[in-house]
Amino acid sequence: MSGADSIRQVDRFIETEIEARALALAFSLGIIDRLLVEEFVAKDEIFLLGKMPEAAFHLFLDLLVGNEVTRGHETIGLTPQFRAALACRDLLEAKLWFANLVAPDIHGLFAELLSDIPQFMARARVFELFRYDRCMVVTPENLAATAQWVNYTTILTRYEAPSCLDRLVLAEHRQIMDIGGNSGEFVRQICERNQAIRATVFDLPVVCELGRRHVSGSPQAGRIAFLEGDLRNDPLPADHDVISFKSVLHDWPQEDAAAFIGKAAQALAPGGRIVIFERMPIELRGARLPYSMVANLVFLPFFRSPDFYAGQLDKLSFIDITVRSIGIEMPFALITARKKWQ
Q: What is the CATH number of domain 3-89?
């Protein structure tokens, strides 16, 4: 099963908020784990795990049944389709966690999200999670705080990256630098597919430390280096023939994103390639927005058309600019270009 198929398989259980919250509660109460061990468990035993009044418990079970998580009445079991989705349990739990985390911001600040971005960013609690000031000095406290979002984005990358890498041929290249490369999961997959490539992750110090821990047990660890730095202020090394941005540029205002692409262009070796794999604007086209998309909705103001990235590369005199649309749970684009030989 492809990464995109895994995401769609998981998202079917996060279509409505109340059902998603019931599922998250079933995980936290240990009900899902109990049902994984035994095919069916008596309803009375599940009731003891639920720790809630009887009327609430019946509603809770009805929500799980309606969401096709469980089946049965007097004895309760997991549905075959939910058992299959648990092959991607890390993704399912991560998406439930983040959707439930950001939902209060969407509920309380929906008007600001659509019309007053500075107010939304100032008041939305989710942005407390992504605190780059906590990423500069490696301390136990900063590692714990940063690990929350690094773990989340790592899991997303685990499932999103194959949709990019299936379309990206890197056999001619030897050195890749992933800017804002997070835990190194993206380049780990690149190295797994391309045995001759060595990789550098350029990111903030605390993120790099978490990344070293993430890749340390993998066969690719010896070919992945972490370079600590701040793209806003620090120079980039000039010994790479591929530079990539994976889900990074949308985090920044347009002028910053343009400056970062320019900085990468200067560092890239002549004849080298730049790779941008980014979320694009949300397009419903008549469909209804599922609750699983609330995680992306919180970043709504920051998604840009691929024309912006292609335009920046054109201004920098890149050649062979290509833009490919990729549908995952939302539109992505893979933009590649080559730097001219000088």
A: 1.10.10.10
